[in-house]
């Protein structure tokens, strides 16, 4: 990826609905020609952010820059930013061809008929819908609608396309295929995709970069593997759905939790004291086993869940907290476990990430 | 459960209820075929005839009963209803469109508009004629003052119909259009309007029929030239003849014709949708 | 600042609303204000002038006929309102709730609405051959041997006005109630029945409260129309029943604008009280 000027930049963007603050002073710089995933739980303000960038909503404060130009006060139709809706929002009274041609026909600059036809045709071909031009939106499947929506945006040759949970309305099979295709289509064009999603797997799989939004703020913006390995705050760790999180207290470099007191190094600044260890870094030992790699957490085995490439074991600790262990099958067969029996869970303390109000000196 | 008993009883009741609604009309229809010109507007039927229908169109030899002055009145009523329909629908669509966004004073504006259908015709009519007569000093006409009062009356209906339609309208297609660089005006013309057109049609039908049949406002607010309801009202005070019944049957048939046109227009859009759905099944 | 785009939106809203709002202010609010104003003008035999006086108001309350018309209006309104409710509710109950098939319920509703495509005045007039001395009802009753001599009180009486108005306005009661009943989730009724509730209890505890907004909307429709009536009473009472509306018509006919305005103001106040009273029970805007 070549480094160029940022495609868009947000400066203190704030949006309130009555008493509710959806966007809380967001600062953000997005690089050009990239696939950016915007990950956030529902209610984190991710759709609001997209709508503010698109110009469907006005921020209460802050500025939005696009291709070096302040577009905060520009109406949506003068911004030249594409938008793909979760429900596709195709024009139901127009054919596939006319849907894609819509922006070229009725936009600001008048194009010759031949050029419109040509651009629409190649755009439809690019998304693999050749032959369906004369169908109406009611006559095509969900996945095809998604492609029409994409073609309709891309035919305008925008530099930025906003995708609002574009795969949310598709079934699981189709979703995976579209993930690959969306990336492939973007790479062929000189365009930035900002893809909003509530699914951490989707975000980590698709984004060149992932921005994590929580409570109206972007808490982390980095490459997927950096985020996966090192969430900056406990909320991100929680949202990634890959970490066992333990509440406790951190004092003078000692974390005290359900597994006893453990010395820790380099805790990360956080609003609460939390100890995190990834599911696949948590190991299972017999109760009373003295040969542990780290802290000992007594837990009762509840159930297991087979996921194809790995097995998830569910445990319950003495304080009724569920702990998950992810055993990847490439590491060999898992040890047999008896439901209701007590075991000890442990891990290498170097793999743990500790968040604390008290930061390292 | 008691509804096993209740349901048939209510079914019979609804039958009687509908008879109550239609009864007078059936009688009126029967009496319109009274013999003429001696036969009066009551039973018994002396002899079945279509005399009064011919009388309506001036096809009978002159008699002491003057023909109804309906010809010009009908043209006036149709013209007035058409003017009212267009104006009320345009105002209704615009106002309902504005109500899709929150704004301050929305409650007041809503009730101001709805007031138009709430205030009885006598009051609007009286006030309009007072204003025209005593303040502005203009003559009252069916095409001026009465037209204003008709729009006051029908605009709220058109507004409410459009409000109900737009409430159910998914605005994301409009946003999609904007994001393609299409201005809000063009978006309204090319996306919103085609999609809400069935609603617009209903609003137009409402406005047209209400205006066509409007009477109290017109009575006060129009001048010498009568509209159709005024011509009918004029016959109230004098002796009634079966020709007015024949006329009632004719206007009803006309209304049904209007309704049929509306039904066909609506049916066409539904059929188009169905045809598409069927093609999908084949494909 | 971002105020620019907010202003732009305000401007759009303003432009969309301005024509309608201006129209309503000029041709609805101003005329009503005008009625209030003119009710204080001085009436001479052939003209009025804008010298303010209370004479017309005094005349109204001094005249037994005028005050009587006020009471007649209120009495007829209450009777017709009650009748439309009593007659309309069971019909609405059947159409909105009892009929399971959507098609039949739509057909029934359309049947109720069809008469509205006949001129209102013709519908009023149609009661004359129905109720008259030689009218359909008397003929049928005589044929059946139920009566010997025709009932004369049927036409040109307060009764005929009540019958006529009830028939014309009952549909405005049926429609909103049936609409509200149609929105009731049948599962709630099923659940109540499973818990052993009888129909009476289900009706009073569930069905009626849920249909109440419809009743109120229907009552507003009927009230507004009945209170402003004059044509039905004119055509079916033989000038025996005078409502406020009739007085306005005759006063305007004899160019007594000031007195007509006084009656207009009284009618407006009466309507205001009635509608405001109903709106206290239900928020009309929320029901749409």
Describe this structure in words.
The complex is a heterotrimer of chains A (361), B (283) and C (288). By secondary structure, chain A is of the alpha+beta class. Helices cover 23% and strands 34% of the residues of chain A. The mean pLDDT of chain A is 88. By secondary structure, chain B is mainly α. Chain B has 2 domains: 1-65 and 241-264, no CATH class; 71-236, Orthogonal Bundle (MetI-like fold), CATH 1.10.3720.10. Chain B has 11 helices and no strands. The model of chain B has no long low-confidence stretch (mean pLDDT 85). Chain C has 288 residues and is an all-alpha fold. Chain C has a single domain, classed as MetI-like fold (Orthogonal Bundle), CATH 1.10.3720.10. Helices cover 76% and strands 1% of the residues of chain C. Chain C is built from 14 helices and 2 strands. Chain C has helices spanning 3-38, 55-62, 64-98, 102-113, 120-125, 127-131, 136-143, 158-182, 186-194, 199-227, 231-236, 244-253, 257-281, 284-287, and strands spanning 42-43, 48-49. Chain C has a two-stranded antiparallel ribbon. The two termini of chain C are 37 Å apart. The model of chain C has no long low-confidence stretch (mean pLDDT 88). At the B-C interface, helix 1, helix 3, helix 4, helix 5 and helix 6 of B face helix 1, helix 3, helix 4, helix 5 and helix 6 of C.
CATH superfamily caption of chain C = MetI-like
Shape of chain C: flat
Our count of domains of chain B comes out at: 2
Shape-level CATH architecture of the largest domain in chain B: Orthogonal Bundle
CATH superfamily of the largest domain in chain B, called what?
Answer: MetI-like
Fraction of residues in helix of chain C: over 70%
Q: Report the top-level CATH class of the largest domain in chain B.
A: Mainly Alpha
Number of domains of chain C: 1
Rg of chain C, nearest Å:
24 Å
Tell me the span between the first and last alpha carbons of chain B. Answer: 48 Å
What order do the helices and strands of chain B follow? HHHHHHHHHHH
In brief, what are we looking at here?
The complex is a heterotrimer of chains A (361), B (283) and C (288). Chain A is an alpha+beta fold.
Task: Note the topology.
The complex is a heterotrimer of chains A (361), B (283) and C (288).
Chain A: E1 6-17, E2 20-31, E3 35-39, H1 46-54, E4 61-66, E5 69-70, E6 82-84, H2 96-106, H3 113-126, H4 142-154, E7 160-164, H5 172-188, E8 192-197, H6 200-206, E9 209-214, E10 217-222, H7 224-229, H8 234-240, E11 243-247, E12 249-251, E13 254-257, E14 260-263, E15 268-269, E16 274-278, E17 283-286, E18 297-306, E19 310-317, E20 322-328, E21 342-346, E22 353-356
Parallel strand pairs in A: 3-8, 3-9, 6-7, 7-8, 15-22
Antiparallel strand pairs in A: 1-2, 1-4, 4-5, 9-10, 11-16, 12-13, 13-14, 16-22, 17-21, 18-19, 18-21, 19-20
Helix pairs in contact in A: 2-3, 2-4, 3-4
Chain B: H1 3-31, H2 51-56, H3 71-98, H4 106-118, H5 121-136, H6 145-167, H7 172-179, H8 184-212, H9 216-221, H10 228-237, H11 242-282
Chain C: H1 3-38, E1 42-43, E2 48-49, H2 55-62, H3 64-98, H4 102-113, H5 120-125, H6 127-131, H7 136-143, H8 158-182, H9 186-194, H10 199-227, H11 231-236, H12 244-253, H13 257-281, H14 284-287
Antiparallel strand pairs in C: 1-2
Helix pairs in contact in C: 1-13, 2-13, 3-8, 3-10, 8-10, 9-10, 10-13, 12-13
């Amino acid at each position: 990826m070549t480094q160029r000027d940022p495609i868009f930049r947000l400066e203190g963007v704030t949006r309130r609905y009555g008493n509710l603050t959806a966007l809380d002073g967001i600062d953000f710089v997005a690089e050009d020609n990239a696939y950016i995933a915007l990950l956030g739980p529902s209610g984190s303000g991710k759709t609001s952010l997209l709508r503010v960038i698109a110009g469907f909503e006005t921020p209460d404060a802050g500025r939005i820059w696009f291709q070096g130009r302040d577009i905060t006060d520009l109406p949506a139709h003068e911004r030249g930013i594409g938008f793909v809706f979760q429900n596709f929002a195709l024009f139901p009274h127009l054919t596939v061809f006319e849907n894609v041609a819509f922006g070229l026909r009725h936009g600001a600059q008048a194009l010759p008929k031949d050029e419109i036809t040509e651009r629409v045709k190649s755009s439809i071909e690019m998304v693999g819908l050749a032959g369906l031009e004369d169908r109406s939106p009611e006559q095509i499947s969900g996945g095809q609608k998604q492609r029409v929506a994409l073609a309709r945006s891309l035919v305008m040759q925008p530099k930025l396309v906003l995708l609002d949970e574009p795969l949310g309305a598709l079934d699981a099979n189709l979703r995976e295929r579209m993930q690959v295709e969306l990336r492939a289509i973007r790479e062929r064009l000189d365009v930035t995709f900002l893809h909003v999603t509530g699914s951490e797997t989707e975000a980590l799989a698709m984004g060149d970069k992932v921005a994590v939004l929580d409570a109206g703020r972007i808490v982390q913006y980095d490459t997927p593997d950096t985020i996966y390995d090192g969430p900056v705050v406990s909320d991100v760790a929680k949202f990634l759905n890959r970490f066992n999180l333990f509440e406790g207290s951190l004092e003078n470099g000692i974390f005290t939790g359900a597994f006893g007191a453990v010395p820790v190094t380099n805790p990360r600044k956080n609003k609460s004291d939390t100890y995190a260890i990834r599911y696949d870094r948590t190991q299972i030992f017999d109760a009373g086993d003295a040969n542990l790699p780290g802290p000992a957490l007594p837990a009762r085995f509840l159930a297991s869940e087979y996921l194809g490439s790995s097995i998830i074991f569910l445990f319950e600790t003495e304080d009724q907290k569920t702990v998950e262990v992810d055993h990847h099958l490439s590491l060999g067969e898992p040890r047999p476990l008896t439901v209701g029996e007590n075991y000890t869970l442990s891990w290498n303390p170097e793999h743990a990430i500790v968040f604390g109000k008290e930061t390292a000196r | 459960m008691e509804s096993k008993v209740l349901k048939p009883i209510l079914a019979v009741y609804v039958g009687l209820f509908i008879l109550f609604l239609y009864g007078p009309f059936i009688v009126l229809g029967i009496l319109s075929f009274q013999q003429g010109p001696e036969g009066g507007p009551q039973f018994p039927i002396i002899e079945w005839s279509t005399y009064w229908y011919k009388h309506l169109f001036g096809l009978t030899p002159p008699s002491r009963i003057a023909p109804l002055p309906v010809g010009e009145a009908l043209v006036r009523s149709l013209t007035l209803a058409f003017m009212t329909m267009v104006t009320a629908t345009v105002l209704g669509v615009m106002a309902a469109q504005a109500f899709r966004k929150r704004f301050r004073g929305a409650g007041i504006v809503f009730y101001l508009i709805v007031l138009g259908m709430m205030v009885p015709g006598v009051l609007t009519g009286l006030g309009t004629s007072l204003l025209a007569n005593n303040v502005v000093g203009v003559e009252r006409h069916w095409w001026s003052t009465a037209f204003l009062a008709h729009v006051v009356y029908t605009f709220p209906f058109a507004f409410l119909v459009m409000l109900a339609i737009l409430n159910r309208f998914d605005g994301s297609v409009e946003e999609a259009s904007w994001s393609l660089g299409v201005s809000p005006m063009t978006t309204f013309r090319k996306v919103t309007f085609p999609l809400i057109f069935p609603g617009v049609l209903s609003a137009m039908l409402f406005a047209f029929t209400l205006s066509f049949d409007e009477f109290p406002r017109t009575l006060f607010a129009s001048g010498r030239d009568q509209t159709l309801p005024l011509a009918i009202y004029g016959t109230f005070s004098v002796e009634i003849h079966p020709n007015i019944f024949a006329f009632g049957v004719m206007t009803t048939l006309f209304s049904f014709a209007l309704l049929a046109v509306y039904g066909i227009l609506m049916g066409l859009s539904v059929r188009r949708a169905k045809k598409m759905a069927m093609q999908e099944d084949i494909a | 600042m971002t105020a620019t785009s907010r202003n732009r939106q305000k401007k759009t809203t303003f432009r969309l609303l301005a024509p309608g709002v201006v129209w309503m202010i000029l041709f609805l609010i101003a005329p009503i204000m005008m009625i209030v104003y003119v009710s204080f003008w001085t009436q001479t035999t052939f003209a009025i002038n804008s010298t303010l006086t209370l004479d017309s108001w005094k005349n109204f309350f001094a005249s037994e006929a005028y005050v009587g018309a006020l009471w007649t209006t209120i009495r007829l309104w209450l009777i017709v309102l009650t009748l439309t409710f009593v007659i309309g509710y069971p019909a609405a109950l059947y159409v909105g709730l009892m009929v399971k098939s959507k098609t039949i319920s739509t057909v029934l509703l359309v049947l109720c609405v069809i008469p509205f495509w006949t001129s209102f005045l013709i519908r009023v007039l149609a009661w004359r051959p129905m109720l008259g001395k030689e009218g359909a009802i008397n003929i049928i009753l005589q044929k059946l041997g139920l009566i010997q001599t025709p009932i004369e009180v049927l036409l040109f009486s307060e009764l005929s006005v009540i019958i006529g108005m009830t028939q014309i306005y009952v549909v405005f009661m049926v429609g909103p109630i049936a609409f509200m009943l149609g929105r009731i989730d049948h599962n709630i009724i099923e659940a109540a029945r499973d818990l052993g509730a009888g129909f009476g209890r289900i009706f009073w505890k569930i069905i009626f409260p849920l249909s109440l907004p419809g009743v109120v909307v229907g009552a507003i429709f009927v009230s507004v129309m009945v209170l402003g009536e004059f044509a039905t009473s004119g055509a079916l009472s033989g000038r025996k029943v005078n409502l406020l509306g009739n007085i306005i018509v005759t006063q305007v006919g004899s160019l007594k604008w000031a007195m007509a305005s006084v009656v207009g103001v009284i009618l407006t106040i009466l309507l205001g009280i009635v509608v405001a009273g109903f709106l206290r029970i239900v928020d009309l805007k929320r029901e749409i």
